[in-house]
């Protein structure tokens, strides 16, 4: 393909553009974004940025000079509205029409909103975009009592920041445990104990039925499904995201909770690919196609797609990995632990440093590491290979994990 148009100027879209130049693509590359400014990284939004440790400009992934030198044409704050597959064009909100030979959809995901009444009151925040984080950060000075809806990664990272800043913080979670099915029970228990030791309170098996305003019109209370009224001058809602697959679906591409792609990241139209948070892709580690929300997945799929477009006939198979920083815990996960039926602990959770090896039968699905980065780095190399330690080996602390590396 000569003219490549990429819709979505986030982590995945930018990576695809950069990697296309690395593999020698010389034709025009246009990166279409719907947010102002340069492409930026999201992970610090719920961590260092909120704590004031890095400025907004420190979030940018690449400089304007870099984009110019790479001939990556950024059309920012101009969302793609219509995809005409027959004519192979994309129309932007400004009316600009772009012709493509190959189209990449890297549209990411958007926050899932709460339906509870009062959800639009001032003081109720979400955390997906730089604008969301700036609005939230601006409120951190004047508030004292925070309610977090959802004990997922975003909610917990925010709860850790709120505790650092001296807030009284309550986390309301519909499920009986935190982090849903994303981590093993051992890790979930450890994360919970850390938050509780820092003063955060959890209400499990609860939702928010409604929010109530105070005299100033701002949120003052979150009333739970069982009728508890939690006082709050700040609410953070982190109840998951929805894939941005509307443009794809409206043009007749296959979608199923995201844009469906094959092992080469092609959609049901061979001239269109999808990558990152918006894509549902098969993976050798999973029985079912997956939509993965992580920086690693966005970057690796962006790189992979560039190689495929340059002619490589390779199936996408990069090992998924993920991290989260919360209140002194660096949690790192290598592999896909969903469906594990037994675990082996290496290290003592009491010491604050341990790893959980998650097996299904004899197969090592993944490794969770808490403040054991060397275990994580090793696991990224042996999970999914025949070299991975078997159950008995994993539990033997005297065995150095380095012996399982390729
Ligand atoms: P995005 O980064 O969402 O980029 C997609 C872009 O496309 C967006 O700018 C979107 O607005 C734009 N777009 C959508 N539709 C259109 C359209 N029609 N026209 C033009 N543009 C459009 N992952 C980790 O691995 N570790 C972490 O610690 C971590 N922390 C996170 C913390 C926060 C607060 C958030 C929000 C996410 C975090 N993630 C983390 C997840 C990670 O940031 C995402 O998985 C990653 O950004 C996905 O990249 P993407 O390019 O697919 O999507």
From TrEMBL:
The segment(s) forming the Reductase C-terminal domain are 321-404
Claim: Flavoprotein is one of the keywords in the record: yes
The answer, when asked if Kinase is one of the entry's keywords, is no
SUPFAM superfamilies named in the record:
FAD/NAD(P)-binding domain (SSF51905), FAD/NAD-linked reductases, dimerisation (C-terminal) domain (SSF55424)
Highest taxon in the source lineage: Bacteria
Q: Which cofactor does it need?
A: FAD
Domain FAD/NAD(P)-binding per the UniProt entry, residue ranges: 3-302
Coiled-coil residues are none
Which keywords does the record carry? FAD, Flavoprotein, Oxidoreductase
Pfam families membership: Pyr_redox_2 (PF07992), Reductase_C (PF14759)
Q: What is this protein called?
A: NAD(P)/FAD-dependent oxidoreductase
